[in-house]
């Protein structure tokens, strides 16, 4: 079967750095997405990785290792507004999206 | 504001009621999706429409009935639901056709929170 694993919940301190991991076992790989979802709001697109390496976008970076079936989302200089759920999704060999259950990130002052 | 609007935001219904969820996208996209989001579970794809034609129906019970009258509007008709159908129902759209190499990011609405009593 196809599977995406993410930690259910993480806690971090304002101003710090946090890394949210995502491991996947899918039938093929055609890209990995990260979305952010604040409570009661729409998921919004953060990043897309299809090649190995690190993609940086402001305070957020996303890393991919296809050989390890692994990605992470790195959030720097954490702000209270970063409290949200972070969803990882992989596009498989049929270009279908396989979703993780999401990681709820709690930021404390 | 994501360009995808869902109504109602909250809905409480009994098991014998009939109700509908509405989704409208203002992005000029050609593909629209219904997802079910339950607590601590992955998003479940329910239906996909491309250019108003249903292209995917992921073994969803017949008590859920989608309708796509045009490329900007999507409905989910609900009837004789069960308490386990209580969840957040998310609508999404994409610029590119679904399930292809070029299919990019999805644009989601804020969802309709459904409670079935």
What is the compact description of this entry?
Chain A has no helices and eleven strands.
Give the topology:
The complex is a heterodimer of chains A (109) and B (117).
Chain A: E1 3-5, E2 9-13, E3 18-25, E4 32-37, E5 44-49, E6 53-57, E7 60-65, E8 70-75, E9 84-91, E10 97-99, E11 103-108
Parallel strand pairs in A: 2-11
Antiparallel strand pairs in A: 1-3, 3-8, 4-5, 4-9, 6-7, 7-8, 9-10, 9-11
Chain B: E1 4-7, E2 10-13, E3 18-25, E4 31-37, E5 44-50, E6 53-57, E7 64-70, E8 73-79, E9 87-94, E10 107-108, E11 112-116
Parallel strand pairs in B: 2-11
Antiparallel strand pairs in B: 1-3, 3-8, 4-5, 4-9, 5-6, 7-8, 9-10, 9-11
Structure description:
The complex is a heterodimer of chains A (109) and B (117). Chain A has 109 residues and is mainly beta. Chain A has strands spanning 3-5, 9-13, 18-25, 32-37, 44-49, 53-57, 60-65, 70-75, 84-91, 97-99, 103-108. Chain A has no helices and 11 strands. In chain B, the strands form 2 sheets. In chain B, strands 2, 4, 5, 6, 9, 10 and 11 form a 7-stranded mixed β-sheet that branches. A 4-stranded antiparallel β-sheet of chain B has the order 1-3-8-7, with no helix packed on it. Chain B is an all-beta fold. The chains are: A mainly beta (109), B mainly beta (117). Chains A and B meet through strand 5, strand 9 and strand 10 of A and strand 10 of B.
Question: Helix segment count of chain B?
Answer: 0
Shape of chain A: globular
- Please give the alpha-carbon distance between the first and last residues of chain A: 40 Å
Low-confidence stretches of chain A: none
**Mean pLDDT across every amino acid position of chain B:** 93
The gross shape of chain B turns out to be: globular
Largest sheet of chain A: 6 strands, mixed
Number of strands of chain B: 11
Radius of gyration of chain B: 13 Å
Helix content of chain B: under 10%
Strand proportion of chain A: over 45%
Helix-strand makeup class of chain B: mainly beta
Number of helices of chain A: 0
Low-confidence stretches of chain B: none
Class from secondary-structure proportions of chain A: mainly beta
The chain pair with the largest interface is: A-B, 24 and 20 residues
